[in-house]
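Annotated sample (chain length 148).
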Amino acid sequence: MTLKERITEDMKAAMRAKEADRLSTIRMLLAAVKQKEVDERVDVDDVMLVGIVDKLIKQRKDAIAQYTAAARQDLADKEAAEVVVLEAYLPARLSEAEIQSAVAAIVAELGAKGPGDMGKVMAAVKTQLAGKADMGLVSAAVKKALAP
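Output written by the structure step:
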């Protein structure tokens, strides 16, 4: 079963169980998938779907920070609940140590010397670790590895 099929089945289960919050989050995810398919005229595969989920989680985390700063805990809690639902569709994430070792291997492979090579290293890292790691942690590991 593909990830997209699993999400559709989860939507049906949420409808049957009358879980309104979970249902709205899953529908929002499926709408984002459909939008990507229509905009780019492609069939979204599991790798692209993980990227969409990552993007939606990042948006929710940014919103949580904004709502917390504005003292709107009710809205921050709603966004946090959406993050929990969305994270269920992500594969197991790499640990910080695994990220650092993968970044170190890529830096050595590319022969990167300093901060000027950040773009080249990030491009390589994104292709290898997309969907497997939090890109914020990856970026920090690349900066640390390329620090003079």
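Annotation: The radius of gyration is 18 Å.
Annotation: Residues 60 and 79 are 6 Å apart (CA to CA).
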